[in-house]
Amino acid sequence: MNKPVLQSPNPSATTPSTNSLSALPPAKAAAGIFAAYDTPVFFCELMRRTDEMPSSLRTVRDRLAGFDLSELRHRTSTAETQLYRLGITFTVYSDREAIDRILPFDMIPRVLTASEWEHIDRGVQQRVRALNLFLRDIYHERHVLRDGIIPASLVLGNPNYCEAMVGVRVPGDVYVHINGTDLIRDSSGRFMVLEDNARTPSGVSYVIENRHMMLRLMPDLASGMPLRSVEEYGLKLHQTLCEVAPEGVTDPQVVLFSPGIYNSAYFEHVFLAREMGVPLVEGRDLIVENHRVYMRTVAGLRPVHSIYRRLNDEYLDPLAFNPDSMLGVPGLVEAYRRGNVTLANALGTGVADDKAVYAYMPRLIRYYLGEDPILDSVQTHICAEPEGLAYTLANMDKLVIKPVGESGGYGLLIGSQATQTELDEFRAKLLEDPSNYISQPVIDLSVSPTLCPSGVEARHVDLRPFALTGKNTWVLPGGLSRVALRKGSLVVNSSQGGGSKDTWVMAR
Asked: Which residues form the Circularly permuted ATP-grasp type domain (predicted)?
């Protein structure tokens, strides 16, 4: 294994550019619904850019400008009604008044040029390669720990590190079969990785359904546009799961393993099983005999070879993890360890998307691949380290502070938007358990025109491309563009009031 000399001892990525859109030429006035649109300091995906506006974006902008606001609102209302009738919902457990909600959908798409997508595609593929090499290494030779590239305590003491995976060979050395990489753009328009999702990333169903909705309700906007298709995802996912089936299996049986109807992403489980044409199963539908997995059917037991599991490690097998779990399958982990079934994603991949490990990803890419990162990471301070904690405590009002194991926007503090009381309370949390937190600078996220109650306004967005890895890695052209619907909010997560947009990738 090549072990290139690292160029910097700093685990954090390159400090984000200080370029600002204040240095850019002013955006040209736009007509129609964009007449009052304003993006004073942010990079706008459609209206204000660092380069000359590509012709494809100009076409989208000009077509949108010709719409009437009342017509856009009518189509948006129609879209929301259709989404609800189709059952395209997610569950909010904390809301006692409404269990199932639709993800609010904005009819103004987010547009990426062919060159922008090519950059994202290469960067995501590079990152997935490094993640898989890292996971293989920490569960086998542990070169990366012995060479001091990342602290051993951060890996071996990580709550997501899975001892059951030590020494286990997985087909093709692929641990992360389905990956969601969260990207943002800073004030200069540069794409940056915000975090990795290497366990059970969700949201791809919205990518596909958003496109269906746009083509149905906005055909006059999409007509003639050279859009990359998102229709292949189900086929590619099934192909990936077949490619990583146990050795010697020529016609693998794939299933999607769901925790059940009360899971917040259950709609997506149903959707993806249908897209792949495979059974949707729960723990009660599977059984292990002689260290092999079978599915119960009306015709008897049927062998299962690849399982796309949508539940966390600790619930998979009561014999191996949580003995109180009623969701898992007794004996599943031992069948997996013996190579008789493939789990996607592999056990123990949560180490790779830990927010503290994230800080070392630039190092890991250079270490395993001998390449500089194509996509930069956000500068990250690890509060478990004295210097990181001291910096965070001294600059709380300027940082975003996140718990390392949380997702969905829960438990974080945006210092610039916090009250003094909130800062004081969070300071106490940091001092009590510093290893549970990292901090990052507040990035001026890019914005996209969004239909709001008072008209078309700028709202912050991010992007989650989805990558599938079997024999090769394929990235779905587009991804989930999430939008922070509340004015001024930087939190785009659906659980925190965010919505979504269709993501258009231009073919040329």
From this structure: 109-484
Question: Which letter does DSSP use for residue 458 in this model?
Answer: E
| The amino acid at 75 | R
DSSP SS3 for 203: coil
Look up residue 369 and give its two tokens.
């691949």
- CA-nearest of 474, 467, 493, 461 to 111 is 461
Residue 306: which of 330, 336, 274 has the closest Cα? 336
**Domain ranges, ordered by start, for the chain:** 21-378+443-505
Cα separation, 338 vs 240, in Å, equals: 21
Question: How far is CA 50 from each of CA 89, 117, 292, 483, rounded to the nearest angstrom?
Answer: 37, 17, 57, 21
Q: What is the pLDDT of residues 383-428, one digit of tens each?
A: 988 999 999 999 999 899 988 866 655 688 988 889 999 999 999 9
How do residues 481-500 score in pLDDT, each as one tens digit? 999 998 888 878 766 678 99
Q: What's the one-letter identity of residue 459? A: R
Collapse the DSSP code of 35 into the 3-class scheme (helix H, G, I; strand E, B; otherwise coil) and give the result: coil
d(CA 421, CA 416): 13
pLDDT score of 101 more than 80 = no
Q: Where are the alpha helices (DSSP H) in 66-151?
A: 69-85, 114-138, 143-146
Burial class (CB in 10 A: 0-12, 13-18, 19+), 211: buried
CA dist., res. 251 & res. 306, Å (int):
11
Virtual torsion, Cα 313, 253, 281, 275, nearest 10 deg:
100
- How many residues does the structure list for the chain? 508
Query: What distance in Å separates the CA atoms of residue 63 and residue 57, rounded to the nearest whole number?
Result: 10
Cα first-last separation, the chain: 38
Cα distance between residue 439 and residue 92, in whole Å: 27
Rounded CA separation 289/301 (Å): 10
d(CA 293, CA 303): 6
Q: What is the pLDDT of residues 317-353, one digit of tens each?
A: 999 999 999 999 999 999 999 999 999 999 999 999 8
